[in-house]
Design brief:
Number of strands: 0
Number of helices: 3
Order of helices and strands: HHH
Number of domains: 2
Largest sheet: none
Strand content: under 5%
Radius of gyration: 24 Å
């Protein structure tokens, strides 16, 4: 009975560590560049073409 308990505790610890490891992989992505954010805002319709062009010029200068 003690052996079963030890195995179960070990399994729980292993699963928790695996979950944490997989969660950390998802946060290692590179942050979006200002141009990517600007393009997404334009695509969503949050800004007009004129605003997009003006902001693009500011980012590139």
């Amino acid at each position: 009975m003690l052996l079963v308990l030890i195995v179960l505790v070990g399994l729980v610890v292993y699963l928790l560590l695996e979950r944490r490891r997989s969660d950390n992989r998802g946060t290692e992505s590179t942050p979006e560049t200002p141009m990517e954010i600007l393009k997404k805002r334009y695509a969503k319709g949050e800004i007009t073409k004129e605003e997009f062009d003006r902001m693009k010029d500011e980012i590139e200068s």
